[in-house]
Amino acid sequence: MKDLQELRARLDVIDAQIVDLYKERMDIAREVGADKVKTGKKVFDPIREQAKLDQVTELLEDGFYQKGIGELYAQLMSQSRKIQYQILIEEGKENKSVFTPVAELPVSSKEIVYQGVPGSYSQLATKKYFGEDAKLKNVRSFREAVAAVVDQEADYSVLPIENSSAGMVSDVYDLLVQYEATIVGEVILPISHALVGVKGATLNSIKEVYSHPQALSQSSEYLEEHPDWKQLAIGNTAVAAKQIKAAGDITKAAICSEEAASLYELEIIDQGINRNENNSTRFIVLAGKKIYKKDAKKVSICFELPHVSGSLYRILSHVIFNDLNMTKIESRPIKDRTWEYRFYVDFEGNLQDAGVQNALLGIAEESKNLLILGNY
Ligand SMILES: O=C(O)C(=O)C[C@]1(C(=O)O)C=C[C@@H](O)C=C1
């Protein structure tokens, strides 16, 4: 058997050759990029890439090696594209961003909109972000809240986007795309549910509990200790509180925030009844204009991908190879297109960073319907 040192010495020789060839290949890819800038050809040429993958795999017989060389070339070509997108940016040939940086979010005399009723968690989140004195207006649906900013009836609206235990609010994700509203901020609200009732209501008098389905589910362990209580779903926790007040019945209770209890003059029977003590909801602040704060640190985008092996991998490589820290990924089915998905990705960065611009160029060219949802 040849000794390890000898084998490693041979690998070193081969690797030096690979490095030289890699450099030569990248230099040529750069020249191709310069040519593409001149002729206006697209950087990503999927037909050429597939032909290249077929060509290199055919040169090998072993199945394991064939797969390996395919993976290697997918990486190499992705790096060629990265260098070429960089040239586009240097030459100022990329599609200029339609987003305007601002020092502070502008506020006019218009109201700030939230969905729900006074006392709801959305109202609490809105006050947390804009301050106690902000002029607020409530609307009934998520759709109305998004439409209000797009139609310039309000400067901003605040909507829940995800809960730490129940997950994404899918309707809001879908509306973001339908209306092309811009995320300009976010606020995280710790959620602590209380069991509330009218004066005289006690754990023993309760027969029915009303709340939003998520609040019921987040309090499920507590409710399991009271199996005889009937659970009834209502559109909003604060609406549940309002109804309990109107009913004036000691057999009915609501699960809502302590603020909603005090607003509707209800008594707190039990506090902090949610299962997960760290339960929080993240709310987004939406604007109708394409603006972002100069010091914004997070980019949210969404794009569509065909149901093809490796398509998500290739797109995410733009995030990874530009050293961007991806903090979240979600997907939603695209209506009327079975098994096709829209992906929602968050990563750290600012629209002015070269790495962010480079990644967005690549994703725009290689996916369908890229939308920059916001930088905040
Ligand atoms: O042939 C090209 O057009 C290139 O830019 C080179 C290359 C490659 O690295 O082989 C890179 C990107 C294209 O998508 C296809 C191929």
From TrEMBL:
Reaction(s) the record says it catalyses: prephenate + H(+) = 3-phenylpyruvate + CO2 + H2O; chorismate = prephenate
Main location: cytoplasm
Superkingdom of source: Bacteria
Molecular-function annotations in GO: prephenate dehydratase activity
SMART domains: CM_2 (SM00830)
Enzyme class, broadest EC rank: lyase
Pathway this chain belongs to: Amino-acid biosynthesis; L-phenylalanine biosynthesis; phenylpyruvate from prephenate: step 1/1; Metabolic intermediate biosynthesis; prephenate biosynthesis; prephenate from chorismate: step 1/1
Domain Chorismate mutase: 1-88
Keyword tags: Amino-acid biosynthesis, Aromatic amino acid biosynthesis, Cytoplasm, Isomerase, Lyase, Multifunctional enzyme, Phenylalanine biosynthesis
InterPro entries: ACT-like_dom_sf (IPR045865), ACT_dom (IPR002912), Chor_mutase/pphenate_deHydtase (IPR008242), Chorismate_II_sf (IPR036263), CM_dom_sf (IPR036979), CM_II_prokaryot (IPR002701), Preph_deHydtase (IPR001086), Preph_deHydtase_CS (IPR018528)
Enzyme Commission number, as recorded: 4.2.1.51
Role description: Catalyzes the Claisen rearrangement of chorismate to prephenate and the decarboxylation/dehydration of prephenate to phenylpyruvate.
Subcellular location as annotated: Cytoplasm
Residues of the Prephenate dehydratase domain: 111-288
Domain ACT: 300-375
Protein name per UniProt: Bifunctional chorismate mutase/prephenate dehydratase
